[in-house]
Amino acid sequence: MARLKSLTTKSLFRFFIFTVVILLCCFPLLYTLMENKYAEDLDELIQFRAEEFKKGKLSSFTAKDIELWNEYNEDLYILPHDEKYPRGIVRQEEYFNKSEGHAIDYRIFYADIFIENEPYTLVSRVPMIEFHDLFNMLLTQYGVVFIILIVSLSIVYVFVSKRLWNPFYNTLQKIERFDLAVGKEPEFKSTDIREFVSLNKQLSRLIKENLKIYKQQKEFVENASHELQTPLAVFQSQLDMLLQQPDLTETETNIIQSLYSTSSRMSRLNKNLLLLAKMDNEQFQRREAINFSTVLFDQLSPLKEMAESNGIEVIVESMSPLTINANLILLESLINNLIVNAIRHNVKGKGIVCIALENNVLSISNTGQSEPLNPDKIFRRFSRTSEEKKGNGLGLSIVRQICILHNWEIIYAFRDNRHCFSVIFQPV
Amino acid sequence: MKILVVEDERELSRNIVNYLSADDYLCEQAYNFAEAEEKIALYDYDCILLDLNLPGGDGLKILEEIKQRNIDSGIIIISARGALDDKIAGLKIGADDYLAKPFPLSELSIRIYALMRRRQFSNNNLLKTNGLEIDLLSKTVRMNDIHIILTKSEYDLLLYLIGNKNRVVSKNAIAEHLSGDMADMLDNHNFVYAHIKNLKSKLAEAGCDNCIKTIYATGYQWLD
């Protein structure tokens, strides 16, 4: 990808290039203009000199005087008449110049005169400014103006451009900070530039629309889960009624048992979806100071018996006192999910679950499959690590979401053949 | 004893009524807000099962009305909302209990049983069935003057079965009742089986035989 430049840099660079090109193009024009004006002045001068001579000296001039005159008047001299000289117009011709030591351009004017009734040609001339003299002079003057112009124009350009684009940058900054999940619509700075007003208006519309859809989507999950509860309740009550039938065969009860399991899986999935949706909808804002170990043991005791009936030992290794600021419902859910996970994904008959709380860190580790889990995948919704365990793939997502809501950190590690989940709490 | 079932889902309502009818309860049904209001105004009920999402209005409004009129009925909210706020709001207004859908009918039955006992039989804390005497206050169980010592889980299980007597209670419902909400996430077969086995043998030792019938490890039934 090309290197990114800022709007100001890019436009300033272009402005600079174009200005330089234009100013450079103007230089030959300026030169020609100066040269022409200069020549015009000189032309007037030599014509004036010729006229003065004709009016003044000519009346008393004799043929003998010509040689002497020509010796002392280098730029106003008299030649014998010749038709080859163009008369009446000023021309530019090259002559040797003694002071310069080489040939230079002269502005030259020929006029017919009569001395003692003999025709002669009066030559009036003046050296033109030399090319490099004019060029150097102009370059110096123009150069100074050029630099002043470029610098001042650039400064003005940057200033104007900054002012002009200010609403745009403001809008950009607001959009960069916008977070759909936070749901706060940015308020754009008002401006009198039509395009930016239109931009802000369209952005506001898009953001509003997005927020609405996002909210609808979040509410949809919650509403859908709520709506599902009723058919699930009907389903379960029908099973309860079916179980009341006298003389059920073993095959029939097996089917009923399987339907019960399916029913409870569905309602667990639904409960978890609902919990996630409620977290997304910020319905667990309430926080209270909670004694951690009380909650842990409350949640642990019914699960412990269940774990032991499956041959899994639950050991509380250490429990340092800890008070945290948390939502009780969510904290219970976090503990439940972590412990249930540690029991479910364990070695049946000889498994161990270790629970420890030290220095604000809760670690729950368990024996289980000998391969470490993929830490990138386990917290994702509906990503399951094993096929045989009929989880719903939401437990750890819930755990992570709860941690995010409370600013806690959850870490997975595989150490000494044990899967260990650690939650780092923020103590009060 | 009269119970009003306010529930718009007719099949669920019918199942509740059928399940509860085994307990000498007289059940009436209301399927919407207006019917519920009318029945509450006209008749007295010992217990009202109240769904919150009703066609025609919010069930919490009915609850408020019941409390305003000083109607002395036990109230159990059965709601699909399940939201904590609803639960708190319901209990604040004066509901006695709250059951989130979906629930096992046996759980509903035991909640009604507990509520009715609290409200009406507060002087009679002795429960008798099949010669078994249970003192609900001291939580002791006797059979022919023999004291049967039960663990807390076994005692809860016994009450659960007796509260649903003559009906089959599912293994899952028992696990959830004893182990809480997360029970469905774990394999509860051994857990329930072990508790039933221990309870059966303790009862048999005291001479209370064949009270608990097993339906192929899927359900259990207390025969009275």
List the helices and strands and how they pair.
The complex is a heterodimer of chains A (428) and B (224).
Chain A lengths: L6 H49 L9 H8 L3 E5 L9 E8 L4 E14 L2 E10 L3 H47 L16 H49 L7 H31 L7 E4 H18 L2 E8 L3 E4 L1 H17 L6 E8 L2 E6 L28 H12 L2 E7 L2 E7 L4
Parallel strand pairs in A: 6-8
Antiparallel strand pairs in A: 1-4, 2-3, 3-4, 5-7, 8-9, 9-11, 10-11
Helix pairs in contact in A: 1-3, 4-5, 5-8, 6-7, 7-8
Chain B lengths: L1 E5 L3 H12 L4 E5 L2 H10 L4 E4 L2 E2 L2 E2 H10 L5 E6 L4 H10 L3 E4 L4 H16 L5 E4 L2 E4 L4 E4 L2 E3 L3 H12 L4 E3 H9 L9 H17 L6 E4 L3 E4 L2
Parallel strand pairs in B: 1-2, 1-3, 3-6, 6-7
Antiparallel strand pairs in B: 4-5, 8-9, 9-10, 10-11, 12-14, 13-14
Give a description of the structure.
The complex is a heterodimer of chains A (about 425) and B (about 220). Chain A has about 425 residues and is an alpha+beta fold. Chain A folds into 3 domains: about 5-135, Beta-Lactamase; about 195-275, Helix Hairpins (Orthogonal Bundle), CATH 1.10.287; about 285-425, 2-Layer Sandwich (Heat Shock Protein 90), CATH 3.30.565.10. Chain A contains 8 helices and 11 strands. A 5-stranded mixed beta sheet of chain A has the order 6-8-9-11-10. A 4-stranded antiparallel beta sheet of chain A has the order 1-4-3-2. Chain A starts with 6 loop residues before the first helix and ends with a strand. The mean pLDDT of chain A is about 90. Chain B is an alpha/beta fold. Chain B folds into 2 domains: about 1-120, Response regulator (Rossmann fold, 3-Layer(aba) Sandwich); about 125-220, Arc Repressor Mutant, subunit A (Orthogonal Bundle). Chain B is about 45% helix and about 25% strand. Chain B is built from 8 helices and 14 strands. Chain B is globular and about 55 Å long. The two termini of chain B are about 20 Å apart. The relative contact order of chain B is 0.10. Classes of the chains: A alpha+beta (about 425), B alpha/beta (about 220). Chains A and B meet through helix 4, helix 5, helix 6 and helix 7 of A and helix 1, helix 7 and helix 8 of B.
